[in-house]
């Protein structure tokens, strides 16, 4: 292990220019969300006014009530479906990816490196190339049109396996694993009692990213749930925006309702994301 005892402490404080740049970037990043909220709280006249209004109105509850009471969209059910799909995919991804990452990082078996290369290569294949084959497979299983078809393809991800493998390789010492085996611990006991507690920050990061990606997924749910009455939230938003005449205040009110859970989740777990990234960047 490197020694940093004699190294002079570095000044990590930012300059005023740095903070000014961060503020500008933050404002540009947050403006689309703010504009969505402005339109979601406005009337049709305010939406079409020139110059456009940048001050929120008082029609948010009215617009949300229209969204949730539309007979052909079923927005409440779509939010519940998105929550179920995202939660199941997140839980499965955390378990399978951490277990596979532990195997690639700490277990010795023939073909380990070659198999890891195959996992990484799958990241270079666009997901759109497998849509037809996936649709046929889900049809053979009789899952098309159900949430099972949306959940099954996302139970494990190549990125999650690679991320867990890299984190476990640096966060869990080989000596700790070997000492557990000497004490008689089986592989699953080592995983559950030693590996999982050590990688909680990484699990938090992967869990948040997976939940957000599963919640925002649009293409595959649109294909497999086409024609059903209870799609996911992103498909329901596309239904709100379809038709010859689009009511933008209603669409963006629905978008605000679908985005609010993610904003709350990121506010609660944002610190865990930073902590997990920082711990994963430290090399011993």
TrEMBL record:
Give an example GO biological process. transmembrane transport
* Domain ABC transmembrane type-1: start-end pairs: 79-269
Q: Which UniProt keywords apply?
A: Cell membrane, Membrane, Transmembrane, Transmembrane helix, Transport
One Pfam family of this protein, by short name? BPD_transp_1
The protein's predominant localisation is membrane
Q: Which GO terms describe its cellular component?
A: plasma membrane
Bilayer topology? Multi-pass membrane protein
As for subcellular location, the record says:
Cell membrane
Check the record and name the PROSITE patterns matching this protein.
ABC_TM1 (PS50928)
TM segment ranges: 20-40, 73-102, 114-137, 143-163, 190-215, 247-268
InterPro entries in alphabetical order:
MetI-like, MetI-like_sf
Q: Which family does it belong to?
A: Belongs to the binding-protein-dependent transport system permease family.
- State what protein this is by name: Sugar ABC transporter permease
What is the organism of origin for this protein? Paractinoplanes rishiriensis
Taxonomic lineage is:
Bacteria, Bacillati, Actinomycetota, Actinomycetes, Micromonosporales
């Amino acid at each position: 292990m490197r020694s940093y005892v004699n190294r002079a402490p570095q000044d990590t404080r930012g300059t005023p220019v740095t903070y000014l740049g961060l503020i500008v970037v933050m404002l540009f990043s947050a403006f689309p969300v703010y504009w969505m909220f402005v339109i979601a709280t406005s009337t049709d006249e305010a939406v079409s006014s020139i110059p456009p209004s940048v001050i929120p109105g008082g029609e948010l509850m009215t617009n949300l009530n229209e969204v949730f009471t539309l007979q052909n969209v079923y927005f409440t059910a779509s939010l519940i479906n998105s929550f179920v799909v995202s939660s199941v995919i997140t839980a499965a991804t955390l378990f399978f990816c951490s277990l596979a990452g532990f195997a690639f990082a700490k277990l010795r078996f023939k073909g380990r490196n070659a198999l890891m290369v195959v996992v990484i290569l799958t990241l270079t294949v666009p997901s759109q190339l497998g849509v037809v084959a996936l649709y046929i497979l889900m049809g053979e299983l009789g899952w098309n049109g159900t949430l099972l078809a949306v959940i099954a393809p996302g139970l494990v991800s190549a990125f999650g396996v690679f991320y867990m493998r890299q984190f476990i390789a640096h966060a869990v010492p080989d000596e700790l694993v070997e000492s557990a085996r000497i004490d008689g611990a089986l592989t699953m006991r080592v995983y559950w009692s030693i590996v999982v507690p050590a990688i909680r920050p990484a699990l938090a990061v992967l869990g948040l990213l997976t939940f957000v990606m599963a919640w925002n997924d649009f293409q595959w749910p649109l294909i497999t749930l086409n024609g059903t009455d209870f799609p996911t939230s992103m498909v329901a938003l596309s239904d709100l925006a379809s038709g010859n005449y689009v009511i933008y205040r209603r669409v963006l009110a629905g978008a605000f309702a679908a985005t609010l859970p993610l904003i709350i989740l990121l506010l609660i777990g944002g610190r865990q994301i930073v902590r997990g990234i920082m711990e994963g960047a430290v090399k011993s």
